[in-house]
Amino acid sequence: MVAERQPRSASDRFQLVQAWRHAPDCPAYCLRSLAPAQTVDPQKARQLIAEGVRFIQEERLSEAADRFRKATEADPYNADAANNLGLVLRRQKKFPEAVKAFETALRLRPDEARIHSNLTLALQDLGQIAAAVAAMKRAYALQPENITIRRNLGVLDWKLGEEIQARGDLIGALPRFCQAVELAADT
Question: In terms of DSSP H, where are the helices of 41-146?
Fold first, then answer.
């Protein structure tokens, strides 16, 4: 049960609050159990993010990842820290971890097309084309006027069509190819 778990970090506290939001009938002691968690420090998170960005510019990716991790601990509500962590992890070819970081950022800021696009790239790196198409469709729904998103969605639709065709299902692949062509025609 969620209420019985004692949070040990700001991240644990965030997860408990999210669980509570989905179970509003949770008794008041659920909230009291959150009290021992570490406090959120947005200013420290911003400082750590700035250091992380500087380390990216200097190609010091391990140090950048460390700063972004610390920023997410200092402020688990900071979507930029989680997104930047995902970007660094992807550059380090740690694709499963990057996907988790982008998913965390999207839980915090679900209406940000850029984060959906970043998740798409990490999913594509993992070879999860169908999931990448779904993520890019969410980005496209948020910014249909964005030519880059539209073009990337077309490319992914084509790749998904190729995957379906490779399994011997040309009829199933055809709608993907048509969608890709339609998207490309408007770019």
Answer: 42-57, 61-74, 79-91, 95-108, 113-125, 129-142
1 compared with 30, residue with greater pLDDT: 30
Q: Is the pLDDT of residue 27 over 60?
A: no
Q: What is the 3-state secondary structure (H, E, C) of 126-172?
A: CCCHHHHHHHHHHHHHHCCCCHHHHHHHHHHHHHHHHHHHHCCCHHH
Nearest-angstrom CA–CA distance, 102 and 106? 6
- Rounded to the nearest 10 degrees, the angle between the axes of helix 61-74 and helix 10-22 is 50
Specify the 3-state DSSP secondary structure of 99. helix
Residues 6+ apart with CB under 8 A from 23: 2
